[in-house]
Specification:
Length: about 450
Amino acid sequence: MTPTIEFRSDDFPQSDRFREIKRQTYEHLLSRIEELGAEFGRWTREAISEFVSIEVASFVRTQRFALNEHEVGQLSTALTQELAGLGPLEDLLEDPSVEDILINDYQHVFVSRQGVLARESTQFSDNQHVLRIVRRILAPLGRRLDESNPMVDARLPDGGRLNVVIEPLSLDGPKVSIRKFRKEPLRPEDLLGLATYNQEIHDLLKLAVHNRCNILVSGGTSSGKTSLLNALAFFIREDERIVTVEDTAELSLNHPHVVRLEARQGGYDGNGMVSIRDLIRNSLRMRPDRIIVGEVRGSEVMDMLQAMNTGHEGSMTTLHANSPRECLYRLEMLAGFAGYQGSEESLRRQIAGALDFVIQIGRLPNGRRRVLSVTEITGMGDNVITTQELYRHETHTDADGQEQDRWKSLGIVPQSPKLAGWRAVMQENRASSAPTPSPDGRSGFWGRRS
């Protein structure tokens, strides 16, 4: 006699048995919805949930499925999400610990939590099920996904970002990438508490933003560039006007005077396209005190550099690069792609004149995000952009064998003219070893030395 396989309630939603019962029940619900006609389309989610609960309970009894009350409830919840929500994605989207959702095909779903990627037990019925849910997300956004438009990048209503690639570009099923963002952006104090940087770097960044230094945040994918940029905006005075320019809107600045601009993709023939470069040029006519570009990745680099060089001090942006020096090389490369016609020396002088600090941020193997370097751009020398690294991230193992973070100060004084007054105070207090108040009146960066 073959033993009966029993599923724990926690395992039931991931079982083949659950998926088969769900499929049969879903088909029954679709036939009932067809009978209701247009009336069903006017129901609220609460009404749909009640309808599903009644129909599922009746169908389970009729078909004699051996389900307990808890499992019937799990089935009803899943089908409600299928009919009125986003199916298997709904719980993941509502989970605040989830940062990224990556779907390789209907059976392979991966989720990133605290920077660590792991496979999720959630599955779809088939690839068509994945497409049905994705198209439900895209429908209110007015975006198409089909063979003539097999790649879509869209901003979700909650501020998240959705990227989808389907056949014929994707060879083995739809590829879905969802980047979630916090409803409340991380504050500088939050990053300090998460050990993204230490108190000295916090004080330096506060001072740099307060004194309108131009800052470029550099790092890899999912390293925390946008979160750091959001946090730096907390240091901007409330009487300043900020214009943000992004390809896909991700920034969430906690500031009373923010103008948000987002690029627009063109139609099939390219008409109607509005690029980041167009928006940066237009933003200069909007009386900005600061311009914040979500990410520089193309020809807009020249307009961003010119804005920083022509009175829009205190501007900030991000760039994909592995180190501060690589960041500067990448700026030169992007300028070349933009058709820059001047000399190499002239371009480097523009970059050196535009930027004050490059902040390198990265995601460590354990998933933690850390500021890896704070580097100041000091000018030009021998046709090379000169820099000095003020802080460098290091790890060490304590007596208990635990890996600890530390930031090594190289004992260098910032040279930016925007910090001239504070630099004099810093040098004086280093000589006397007396703590000096930071801009908000508290003792901080200026009185300490690593």
